[in-house]
């Protein structure tokens, strides 16, 4: 996968792209991570990327020219490869508070793409023509405002890349993560079995794998019910799991 990030602050990504899971994925050649300073694509002598909004109002608005020029440069630089390899057109993602809320399901969807381009804005907002005529997706990581789109882009990229086959040392890790199947993840324990009077649940040290899997599923369901009950509205549960949930609700009533 190739990932390009359009940003006014490429230095923010140096540490993130060079360390931990992302750094290892890049070193393995599984993913290409690069930044583009779209100020370099401004068509004026001062490299201005923003201007006052038409109609008045506070703040500055990102101009369309630098963004369009930078994206078109990236598309042109990949044109031959796209033609020769049959790679699909990239998803062009605008990080924006008005976008769809980013979810694990969206991360899984994007992990199957071959090329992602992220646009990170600053100031008051974007010229609407960027939104209407250039981007394919608008994403938000939550209902709050940050200084720019860089931190949200980092979060999305990390979430997507770790789902690409070969990135994680243990391929089952991504499968059992919270939200992967719609539920929160079950509790984890490791050695020692007893620490300061606090013990690991007996079932986990029993060696009985069927009982362990059942316990983990029950714990995921219970944790989701107590912490994020709204998630249960879109989760498919087996008849046995529906009975577990019914018992949890009955317990709460009493």
UniProtKB/TrEMBL annotation:
Catalytic activity field: guanosine(37) in tRNA + S-adenosyl-L-methionine = N(1)-methylguanosine(37) in tRNA + S-adenosyl-L-homocysteine + H(+)
GO molecular function: tRNA (guanine(37)-N1)-methyltransferase activity
Superkingdom per UniProt: Bacteria
Pfam families in alphabetical order: tRNA_m1G_MT
InterPro entries per the UniProt record, alphabetical: Alpha/beta_knot_MTases, tRNA_m1G_MeTrfase_C_sf, tRNA_m1G_MeTrfase_TrmD, tRNA_m1G_MTases_N, tRNA_MeTrfase_TRMD/TRM10
Subunit text: Homodimer.
Function: Specifically methylates guanosine-37 in various tRNAs.
Protein name: tRNA (guanine-N(1)-)-methyltransferase
